[in-house]
Design a protein that fits this description.
This protein is an all-alpha fold and about 50 residues long. It has one domain. Helices cover about 35% and strands about 0% of the residues. The chain has helices spanning about 5-20, 25-30. The radius of gyration is 14 Å and the shape is elongated.
């Protein structure tokens, strides 16, 4: 991907990068392990973002 991007695309990539992290352990404890993993996690090699 080119280095020079539109600001809107950059903001979308930043948002998805921030969402790409595991859920905190206190959430697991609070929900009594009903919520165990983040469905928004992605791997940069396996799947491509549609932004």
């Amino acid at each position: 991907m080119a280095t020079v991007k539109e600001k809107s695309r950059k903001l979308r990539l930043i948002k998805r990068g921030n969402q790409n992290r595991p859920i905190p352990l206190w959430v697991v404890a609070k929900t009594k392990r009903k919520v165990r993993w983040n469905p928004l996690r992605f791997n940069w090699r396996r799947s491509k973002l549609k932004v």
